[in-house]
Amino acid sequence: MEREIPVEIVYKDKRNSSGRIREGRIVLYISSRLSKAEQARHVHLLTRRLLNQRRKLDQLAFLPLPEESSVVPGRTDEDLARIAARLDRRYWRFGDVSIKFRKQESRWGSCNPASRRIHISHRLKDAPLQLLEYVVAHELCHLQIPNHGAAFWRLLSRAFPEHRRLRALLHAYGLWRNLSDGSVKS
Ligand SMILES: [Zn+2]
């Protein structure tokens, strides 16, 4: 049985409607310029979308997530190089690679096999270590195999046999990050 979440509706004089989960409640900001029927549609759509996100986020329950209010010292490029070297020594031995954090919102990581450069999203600086390690391992494996075919996942499985679960967790973590400082547009 799904736990009931209280929904609070605030009408605002703006074009878009948005919503977020705050302290266990769904708060919806619905455009007052719409017809009653359109407003009802927005309420339905946003509530469903937020509940869906909530379900995915429940997977994160056991991960040590940084508190919204606490200041987490972000990891540095040196930390990143250490993590990559440790993983590579243990599982593959691809050799030297340049790996750095870069401000990127849309991807967790990227790899250029020709120049042997890997970039990791700054959003992972304070993420649970396990998620950062997964993304680093994933990009390292792209040094050898650029696509996501079966051979790629076999290579990655040496370090992360449970890569499916980690991808789901990473997705949920992305949602969690957005929920903590964003909103959903209808
Ligand atoms: Zn990839």
Descriptive keywords:
three-stranded mixed beta sheet, 2 domains, 7 strands, 186 residues, elongated, single chain, four-stranded mixed beta sheet, binds zinc ion, alpha/beta, 42% helix, Zincin-like, disordered C terminus
Give start-end ranges of low-pLDDT stretches.
181-186
Overall average pLDDT: 86
Question: Structural class of the helix and strand makeup?
Answer: alpha/beta
Ligand catalogue: zinc ion
> How many individual β-strands?
7
CATH class of the largest domain: Alpha Beta
| CATH-derived architecture of the largest domain | 2-Layer Sandwich
Query: Helix count?
Result: 5
- What is the straight-line distance between the termini? 27 Å
| SSE ordering | EEEHHEEEHHHE
Count of domains: 2
Please tell me what the overall shape is.
elongated
| Largest sheet, spatial ordering of strands | 1-3-2-7
- CATH topology of the largest domain: the name is Zincin-like
Residue share in helix:
40-55%
Main beta sheet: 4 strands, mixed
Task: Tell me what you see in this structure.
The protein is α/β, with parallel strands linked by helices. Helix content is 42%, strand content 18%. Strands 1-3-2-7 form a four-stranded mixed beta sheet, with helices on one face. The protein is elongated. The C terminus is likely disordered. It binds zinc ion. Zinc ion binds next to helix 3.
